Amino acid sequence: MASSSSSVVQFDNVFHNLGTTAGKLRFTQGGLGWKPAGEGSTHTLVASRFKAFQWLKVARGYQLRIVLNEDEDNENEEEDVRRDNFDGFTKDEYDRVASMVRDLYDSSLESVEVSTRGWNWGKAKIEEADVRFYVKDKLAFEMPISHIANSNIAGKTEVSMEFAHPETQQPGSNTGATNGTKPLKKNKGDQLVEMRLHVPGTVEKTGSGSDAEDDDDEEVTAATAFHDAIKRKADIGQLAGDGIVVFKDVLVLTPRGRYDVDMFPTFLRLHGKSYDYKILYQSINRLFLLPKPDEVHVQFVIGLDPPIRQGQTRYPFLVFQFPREEEMDAELNLDEETIQTKYEGKLKKRYEEPTFRIVTNIFKVLSGQKLTAPGSFTSTSDQSSVKCNVKATEGLLYPLDKSILWVSKQPIWISHTDIHQVIFSRVGLGGATAGVTSSKTFDLRVLTRATGQEHTFAAIQRDEYDKLNAHFADKRLRIKNEMNEEGVLGTAAAVAALEQDDSDEDMDDGSDADGREGQRKSKKKASKASKAAAAMAEDDDSDEDDEDFEAPSEDDGGSPSEASSDEGAGSDDGNFSDASEDSDAPKKKKAKK
C-alpha cells in the first residue's frame, strides 16, 4: 500500500535486501529512508547516489532495485555497496513507483524480465559488478563479483567460482578468525560455496600492442577468457598501486606448486600456473615457523579458517618452504607515516634479511597472529622434530610447547588442551611371527577430547621414546604405555608358533608310535617356550634385539585427518638447532636355527 503527498511518497510492508522484517519506505527529492517495524535503525540514502531504477519479479512479490553510484564519503571501498533492493511491492504498484521515479528523480523505471524456464544453459555475461546468467535473453540469476573469493579453470572448458562466506570473507575489521564472536551454528543457514560453468568454444584475445605485424590475434578458450575477466573484476577496491609487496616464485608444498604471493592491506593473493587464491588475513588463525632436519630449509605453516578449496579438496594449512640461507632485498609500498600509525612501527620500509624472516614478519603483522616456533623439545639428534608416518605418508612431527603439529601433504594440528591421552604402542608383525613387537620403532596414538578421534603417528624410532615421554610428562598430559603389555603377549605367541612348527615336522616324519612320542616331546618344548617367554618379558624394555628370533619392522600408519581447536599458541621465537641427521638404527641379528 502506498501513500503520497506533494513531495513524499510512502510504501508500507517493504523488506530491505534479505531482511526478514518489513518496514516503511519513504521517498523524497533528497533521497529515501527505510524504517523497520518495531526496533531497528533507519536506513537512508541520498538522491545523488541514485544511478538507475529497476523493477523485477522476486520471491516476495516485486522488487525495486536501485543501482547506486560510488560512495565518495566511504573510505572503505570494500564496503561500498553498489545497489539497494526493496522487496514486497505488488504488481499494481508499478505505475505509482514509475511515476514517483519520474517526478522526484527525473529518471525512468526499467522493467527486467526474469526467466522461469528452469534451464541450466544460456549465456553468462559480466556486466558492471555482477556475473549474470541469461536464458533466452531473460535474466535467470545474478551474483555480485565481490562475493567471488576464487576463480579457477577446472578443465579446459569449465570455470569454477568459489564464493566468500559473508561472515569470514567480508570483515568489517581484521579481528582474527577465532575471536569467539561468531553466531551460534544453529542460526546459520546453508551457504552456496561453489558454482561451475561449462564455457565451450574459443575467442580471440587481442594484444595490448599496436604493431601492425601482429595480424593474427591470439586465440584462447572461452573458459580462460571468462576466468580472466572475473579475476580482473574481483579485485574491486584494490588498484595496482595498493599492493604492499610481492614475493615471486615461492615454493608452496601445500597446495603443491610455485606461486607469486601478492600482499595487500586486507588480503593476499596466490598466483599460480593453474590456480589462484584470494585469502583474507582474517581467515589466518595461526602461524608456525619450523626448521627441517636437513638444516637447509625452513617451513612456514599458515593455518586457515575457513580453508581454501581446490575442487573437493580442502586445505586448512598452507606450507611454504624457504632455503635457510636465501636472502633478499624488499621495499614495502608504504610511507613512513602509515608504518608508524597503522602498523605501529612493526614493519620496516626496507628489508635486507633472509627471505623467510621477511615473509614471516610481514604475515605476522598483517594478520595480527602470533608466530609459533619450536620450544623445549629436542630429539636424540638434537632436532625439533621426529620422523613418522600417518598411513603411508611420511612427515615430520613437531612436539611444540602447547600443541602437536605433523607437517606433510595435509598437516595435522592438535592443541594440548584437546588431547585426552597419548598412548605409546609397538608395531605388530605379520606372518609366522604375528604378534612379535619390533624394538626398532613404535607408534604414538593421540586421543582427542572433543570428538574422541584418534590420530596415529607410526614408525617412530625406538630411541625417541624417552624424549617424547619426558616432553609429554613435562606438559602434564595423560600418558599410557602399552609397549610392555604387547611385548609379553607378542613374544609368547611367537615362541609358541615357532615351536609348534617344529612339532609338526617331527610328527610328519615318524610312525604312529613315533608320533605319540613326538607329541610328548612337543608338550615339553611348549612348556620350555612358556618359560622362555616369561624370561624374555622381564627384559622387554632392553634396547637389544632378541638373539633367538628375527623381527623385521613393518610400518602401520593411521589415517590423515584435519585437527582443529580454538586454542593454540607457542613461544614467539625459537632457535633452530643445527644438529645432523638421525643416526642409523642398529642392524638386526639373524634367527638361530
How are the SSEs ordered, and which strands pair?
Elements: E1 2-4, E2 9-16, E3 22-28, E4 31-36, E5 43-46, E6 50-58, E7 61-68, E8 83-89, H1 94-105, E9 109-111, E10 123-127, E11 130-135, E12 138-144, E13 148-153, E14 158-163, E15 194-198, E16 202-205, E17 218-221, H2 222-234, E18 245-254, E19 257-263, E20 267-271, E21 276-280, E22 284-291, E23 297-310, E24 313-323, E25 327-331, H3 336-341, E26 350-354, H4 355-367, E27 371-372, E28 386-390, E29 393-399, E30 403-407, E31 412-415, E32 419-428, E33 437-448, E34 454-461, H5 465-474, E35 479-481, H6 483-509, H7 512-538
Parallel strand pairs: 6-9, 22-27, 32-35
Antiparallel strand pairs: 1-2, 2-3, 2-8, 3-4, 4-5, 6-7, 7-8, 10-11, 11-12, 13-14, 14-15, 16-17, 18-19, 18-24, 19-20, 20-21, 22-23, 23-24, 25-26, 28-29, 29-30, 30-31, 32-33, 33-34
Helix pairs in contact: 6-7
Any descriptors?
single chain, 593 residues, alpha+beta, PH-domain like, 9-stranded mixed beta sheet, 8-stranded mixed beta sheet, 38% strand, elongated, RTT106/SSRP1_HistChap/FACT, chromosome, DNA replication, transcription regulation
